[in-house]
Design brief:
- The protein is α/β, with parallel strands linked by helices.
- The longest helix is centred in the first third of the chain and has 26 residues, at 64-89.
- It has eleven helices and eleven strands.
- Strands 3, 4, 5, 6, 9, 10 and 11 form a seven-stranded mixed sheet that branches. It has a two-stranded antiparallel ribbon with strand order 1-2.
């Protein structure tokens, strides 16, 4: 089979359908109608000569051949991405794409270096890099790093995975909060409040799990809601029906306005390590990623962050084999 531009377009549709879990879910991702997706999938199956998936009332499901084909398609697009990066490197300067992933609601965090690092990176000479910035859960960030779909990630990662390098940046402080309408909001601090906190309905973030309960004298029976991000946790807490931990920087403006109340802030606090993550082994590292990591290094030094030397060594280690002059970036 000789692959044409049309075939690549159809294969992208196939990959999107698989990763979205079906035709209807892929509509928003591809920005085309379900009927168009169905037509293009049929065209691809005709071109290949076998059925890729079953669709209908029983739901979307790949055939055995379709599952093998999907794996091959992922490898194909990874190879195309590497080819594009290598071709861009030959032009000199900074070009190509830089794909950054991060967890949500970090814009209010003064300790987070992402915004300042992006500004530092944009000031580099001959910089024509297209930056793609995506917000995902920690599990999604790790999966996309391993799948070579993003280049670097920022977030809170509780269980490090093999194949990834985690560089701690700082510790994020969480406060236990409730809405001003919650019964606990007007209780005086003391044993009675601590007892009621242990009994109250709680919301937790799935990527932290029961770790959010460690500072509290309670168990999993009091978890009545789970979320994948901070904004969803804040929405449930502001309903007045739940209490939960929120990053202090994120909750502070609601606390100052009296919309939220911090519960026993001297006692009910927790900390999470915020990290920068990259792939541990990068056979063809890009100048754009090297330049961005160097920008992070500069910002950390400016902010007086610990680990500046470690971050600089990480950049050198990852890109020494690529003959990248870090100091010139």
């Amino acid at each position: 089979m000789v692959i044409s531009d049309i075939d690549l377009r159809l294969l992208r549709v196939f990959r999107a359908v698989v990763e979205a879990g079906g035709f209807s879910n892929a509509q928003a991702l591809l920005n085309i109608s379900q009927s168009t997706i169905s037509t293009q999938m049929s065209q691809l199956e005709t071109r290949l000569g076998f059925t890729l998936c079953h669709r209908g009332r029983s739901g979307f499901r790949l055939t055995d051949q379709g599952d093998l084909m999907y794996r091959q398609v992922v490898q194909l697009f990874q190879s195309l991405q590497q080819f594009q990066l290598q071709a861009d490197e030959l032009k000199g300067g900074l070009c190509g794409h830089l794909r950054i992933g991060m967890i949500d609601s970090i814009i209010t965090d003064p300790a987070c270096p992402v915004s300042r690092a992006l500004a530092e990176f944009a000031r580099k000479p001959n910089n024509a890099v297209h930056v793609s910035l995506q917000v995902m859960s920690p599990q999604e960030l790790e999966a996309q790093l391993l799948d070579n779909r993003i280049d670097v990630a920022f977030g809170i990662f509780c269980s490090p995975l093999s194949g990834l390098t985690y560089q701690p940046l700082y510790r994020e402080r969480d406060l236990l909060v409730c809405h001003h309408s919650h019964p606990l909001a007007t209780m005086s601090s003391g044993p009675s409040l601590a007892r009621e906190i242990s009994r109250a309905r709680k919301v937790i973030r799935t990527f932290l799990g029961t770790q959010e309960l460690v500072p509290l004298d309670t168990d999993a029976d009091t978890i009545f809601a789970t979320v994948t991000n901070v904004e969803a946790a804040a929405l449930l807490i502001r309903s007045g029906a739940y209490i939960g931990f929120l990053p202090e920087h994120y909750a502070q403006h609601w606390i100052e306005q009296g919309d939220m109340v911090a519960l026993l802030p001297g006692q009910c606090t927790r900390y999470s390590d915020f990290s920068l993550v990259t792939r541990a082994h990068q056979p063809t590292p890009s100048r754009s990623l090297a330049g961005f990591l160097q920008s992070v290094d500069v910002v950390l030094a400016d902010m007086g962050a610990e680990g500046k030397g470690a971050a600089h060594d990480r950049v050198r280690t990852h890109f020494a084999q690529a003959d990248v002059n870090i100091e010139a970036l």
